[in-house]
Design brief:
By secondary structure, the protein is an alpha+beta fold. Helix content is 15%, strand content 26%. Strands 1, 2, 5, 8 and 9 form a five-stranded mixed β-sheet that branches. The protein has a four-stranded antiparallel β-sheet with strand order 4-3-6-7, with no helix packed on it. Strand 1 and strand 2 form a beta hairpin. The longest helix has 16 residues.
Amino acid sequence: MVLDRSLPPANLKTVSFPFCPHHHRKPFSWLKTPPDDTGNYDPAWCGMTRFISLAVMLFFLVGCGGGKGAPAGTVSGKITYKGQPVNGAALQLTQTAGQGDTINIPVTQEGTFSVADVPAGDYIVVVVPSSGASPVHIPKNTDPAKLAEAKAKVEATKTPPTIPIPEKYKQRLTSGLNITIAAGQQTKDIELKD
């Protein structure tokens, strides 16, 4: 008995690609537009399937971007003016080339700051002073015991305004403060002058 292998057995069912209703036996044949019942090709058919499939392939080719990026540094230090810490301010770092986002760094009441993952490069530093904690409104008809407790909580969270500093340090164009950040851990103390 000779078997004819050119035709599949009658009881064999073909399996279709999950996104296309037609049966495809050749690899990547689902990317081609299948003919309709009359044998003509419909260009709109399976367009979404092709788009999704190509997008998934492109995603795997490009990757997720989880590899190594630009070198980054961790910077800490202290900012002072006339020997006093510049308390409660914020530092804004902007790359001198004008590329990238502005990096905001909070400064503690002791004038210290620390930030991680800063891209290596040259930066202009701007000092943004704080006006201190805003006053909290306590209603007049508050129970005296609760009033004393509320005042104690307000005093505990109260922060003094930043010490007065020269106006030039508050603007990018006039600051004159430049800092170079390299990869790795580093300490950069900043002394403001008149």
